[in-house]
Design goal:
Elements lengths: L4 H17 L11 E8 L5 E8 L3 H13 L1 H11 L7 E6 L2 H20 L1
Parallel strand pairs: 2-3
Antiparallel strand pairs: 1-2
Helix pairs in contact: 1-3
Length: 117
């Protein structure tokens, strides 16, 4: 077993659990969230949860604040479902790869439109 195998497996298990738990949060600030991935440090002490959220910048900021305030609850849910010596600290980061891909698609579309003209 390589060093990176366990953090990868733990991250995938966290992603599945969090994808089920986040929609159950009662916080009205948390909108529609999709957990796109979880990266866990090699020592399993920190986990970065990547997500996408729908809405304008204000709604996404509210979702970010709601997730930040739900950190302790989500850690306890993970602790009940995953057996680890230490539960990692959760950091939530908005996944911007989809927005970047849409921006690149738009640029390519504009280039093709300019070529036709």
């Amino acid at each position: 077993m390589t060093e990176a195998t366990r953090p990868t497996r733990v991250g995938e298990e966290f992603r599945e659990i969090l994808a089920e738990e986040i929609p159950k949060l009662k916080d009205p600030r948390v909108g529609f969230v999709t957990v796109t991935g979880v990266r866990v440090s090699p020592d399993l002490r920190r986990a970065w949860v990547y997500y996408t959220a729908f809405g304008d910048e204000g709604q996404r900021a509210a979702t970010r604040a709601g997730l930040r305030s739900a950190r302790a609850h989500l850690r306890s849910v993970l602790g009940h479902q995953v057996r680890l010596k230490f539960l990692p600290e959760l950091d939530f980061e908005e996944d911007v790869t989809i927005a970047q891909a849409e921006h690149i698609d738009e640029l390519i579309r504009k280039i093709h439109e300019d070529d036709r003209e």
